[in-house]
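From the shared-data thread, chain only:
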Amino acid sequence: MDTPHSSDSQIDRPTRRRQGRLLLNIAIILAILLVLAMMAVKRFRPPPPDIPSEPRAIPVATVTLQPVDAPDQLIVPGRIEPWRAVEVPAVQPGQIVEIPADKGDLVTAGKLLLRQDQDLLMVAEKRSSLLLADSARELQRRGKLQEAGAMALNELEALQTRHDLAEAELAEARLRLTRSAILSPIDGLIDRRYLELGEYAREGDPLFRVIEIDRVKITCHAPERDISAFKQGQKALFTVDSIPDMTFTGTIAFVAAMADPQVNAFPLEITASNPGHRLRPGMIARVQLDKGVRKSSIVVPLQAIITRKGEHIVFQAEDGHARSRAVTIDAIFGASALLSDGLEPGAELIVEGHRALIDGMPVSVITGN
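Structure, as tokens:
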């Protein structure tokens, strides 16, 4: 016979099994959710920060700086000018009736450039010639009378004066006729023509500009600290950008005794021959003036210098690292630069591999001398 406690146990047993299965299912679901959550966290977890490694040494090439005797030079800009430039004026008024020469023509001294109207001048010359001839006949006739005592001496002297005036008038008429033909005063090239055929030229009006360019002069300026190094007859070299394959040689022809107040420097003039007329007035020249030799100088390859933020920078190798140095360029000649400060003898100057360097970067010297 069953007891009440036994009957309750039989009734609760299925219920407990169901509850156990439910708890198991819940535990399984929670475990699955936990796994999914961990996978999601791992997927979206940010990568760990990079741990900086030791910078790699940059291979470079160096040269050991030694003091040398360097050419001491002054490089200044100059302007090429004609040897002579002549403005040819009208020396008397007149209409222009002939222009046998024009801009760009090469002319010789005495060549006809322009002719003014000569009609009235020829009439005046003819009239003066007739008056002189008449005066000469009258003077000859009265001279015979004076010799015969039939004429006073003072009357003959008055005739002589009138004859002299007639000679002067004829000379003036012929001079005016000659001056109506405008001739080139020099050998050269016609650079300008100011008036046209048929225009009226007044006395003093410019008609042509003729320039002599078989020789040219280069004008430049030297600063006060250098002017004493230059003398007349000293050679000078110069180049122009438009003729990059040539270096020209000239001679200092003039050294100013007083500075130009506008630029606070001393004017110089250099003369040079100009075969083929390759040098044209107005070109800008780069003039190299030698001042002598500078002893125990620091000269570096131009390629070793970098311009950054308005400064000239070089790098030297020091204890396995690149050290930047600001330098001052005093002169440039060819592919080299003469420095006035910034580097000392014995420095290991980096000449290759330096373009991307920054101060303190490790370097490895692969070649050096």
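The chain is about 25% helix and 40% strand.
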